[in-house]
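Retry 2 of 3 after timeout on previous attempt. Resubmitting structure tokens to design endpoint.
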């Protein structure tokens, strides 16, 4: 088990990289090639047409933040919310028992939520500035009485 614990930074990086690949693949067309068909699809599911651009921006820039490990918790949380909305508005129209309709966005949302709660790990930009705990590092100071 100690070996697996030593692989945790690598596993968090691989999770971030896989999610980044998924989000850039799905977000790039929304950002660069958004057309009337995409806008109509969003409106058909009760979302405003401008959400195509919003989703594209969130997915593209969120993927870059995930990959580098910069502001990972915030980016992952926002992507979790986006996936939850996608499941609610688009993928679960046949009900909760039609798991095959929403299994992919559910797994992506769960993975993003895990990153939002755990953080990016030590192989990240966040770790350089914030440390593994996700809070700003404090320089150790000696007690003035020493």
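Retry 2 succeeded. Sequence:
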């Amino acid at each position: 088990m100690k070996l697996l614990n030593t692989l945790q930074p690598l596993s968090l990086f691989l999770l971030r990289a896989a999610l980044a690949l998924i989000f850039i693949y799905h977000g790039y067309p929304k950002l660069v090639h958004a057309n009337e068909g995409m806008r109509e699809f969003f409106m058909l599911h009760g979302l405003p047409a401008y959400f195509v651009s919003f989703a594209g921006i969130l997915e593209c820039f969120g993927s870059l933040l995930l990959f580098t490990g910069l502001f990972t918790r915030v980016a992952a949380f926002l992507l979790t919310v986006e996936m939850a909305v996608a499941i609610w508005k688009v993928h679960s129209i046949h009900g909760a028992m039609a798991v095959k309709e929403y299994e992919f966005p559910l797994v992506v949302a769960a993975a993003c939520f895990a990153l939002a709660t755990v953080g990016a790990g030590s192989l990240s930009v966040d770790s350089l500035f914030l440390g593994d705990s996700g809070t700003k590092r404090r320089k150790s100071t000696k007690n003035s009485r020493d």
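Attempt log closed. The mean pLDDT is 91.
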